[in-house]
Amino acid sequence: MLRRRILWYVAVFVLFGVASQVLARVVQLLGAPTGARSEITEFQRLLNNLAWLGYLLYTVIFLIVWKRSLSRLQMLRLIFWVIVVVTGVTLILQSALLGRTFEQIQINEGREIPQAGISGILLLSGLWAIFVTHFFASLFIPWTLKESIRPFAVLYGIFVVSSILLVDLAWWGYVILVIGPVVGAPGALICWWRHSRHRDRFHYRKLRGRYGQMKQELTDARKIHEALFPRPVKTGPTRMDFLYEPMGQIGGDYLYSFRFPGLPGDAPDAEPLSIVLIDVTGHGIAAALTVNRLHGELERLYAEEPDISPGEVLVALNRYIHLTLATHSVYATAVCLRINADKNQLQWASAGHPPVFMRTVDGRLEQLDSTTFVLGACAGDDFTAGEQTARLCPGDTIIAYTDGAIEAMNDKGRMLGVTGLRSIVIGTHPDTDADGGWASAILREVKSHRHGPALDDTLIVEIFRPLRV
Questions:
Q1: Within this chain, do residues 283 and 158 fall inside the same structural domain, yes or no?
Q2: Which of 119, 177, 363, 405 has its CA 20 to 30 A from that of 43?
Q3: What is the pTM of this model?
């Protein structure tokens, strides 16, 4: 863009200047300069010759910028020096020769021209030359505010020095020199406004493009993240369903399920079902990356030992997190369950996880509390899973969740809490249009309590034993 703007500036400047020179020459030929006008004409002829040299120099600059591949700094330096040289020489010649021209007029005509008038003409012509040069360049060249001030400062410095040394200034002439820099304000303001607008638009485009890229990356990451979740278990004597609502595009809650490989002669889907519910500290991309690592570790554990117990799973996960993730202040809560439908048996262990609710077929509500520390908080030798056993008969339902459910706040800033969620489980009926229906019913009640956006990821899992298979 800078290269294109400089080429336009030089081309318009040269064409406008040449047209002005031709028009001035036509006017001069039509007139008949005499007396004072002849001296002024000589002075103008000198400036015109200088102008032609300037146009030639600008043309050379045009060819250089057009043909050669220059950096931004090189182009700015090139245009800076051509403006300073051409306009600076013009200012010096004006101060040195215009005063002598008026003196020659006084001698030839024998009349007195006030020095104040000569000084005023010199000052105004110099200020006008600086203003036109700087303003015209600022219209085309995309300078920053600082870059636009540099050529103006040099030109004005030349103008001040030549005026003081070559012109007999009155006291008000020095006042004009003091307030004269205001002629550079219009050009500087144009550069500041254009550069600010361009920067804002450029940043907006870059941010919008980056946001679109990040959004697409998060969408792809969410697909991969949610592909790690198991499929709901819709058949057999033990069934499982869940609903997941991440706070953002991607979250740090995770559910893993594993069914013990069946042996010849076993009833279909009668093998023990293992469920691991994990809630990683934090949320977003960092938590999702942690979940990915924990998924790989769970895959390894169950592949090496399919009959591994819940307590052994938590011990292995604690060791893994303590050695690899705790150094980054990443921890996790988890609850691990293993349901053996043939024995109506539930084995479970909970590492700092919110209480799990078990609703029995006769309407009782039992609470399975945490049995050990948060995963990663202590070394392997100090960690005891505290695995426990309970009965899980046909018609019973287990409801597990992450802390996004109990941390839901109402409009008064009060969290739902474990007590509030317990009341929901007691007083709510499962949705009849869903298989099991507890996860959707509980999540709906949590959302009705919550005011505003979610503050954490929410995952609700239901494991139930149907009365008839």
A1: no
A2: 177
A3: 0.60
- CA terminus-to-terminus distance, the chain: 73
Shared domain check, 368 and 295: yes
Does residue 217 lie within any of the structural domains?
A: no
Residue for token digits 């005011």? 451
Structural domain containing residue 80? 2-205
How far apart CA 330 and CA 282 sit, in angstroms, is 8
Whether residue 223 lies inside any domain: the answer is: no
pLDDT digits (tens, 9 = 90+) for 179-235: 889 999 999 999 888 888 877 777 777 777 777 777 777 778 778 888 889 999 888
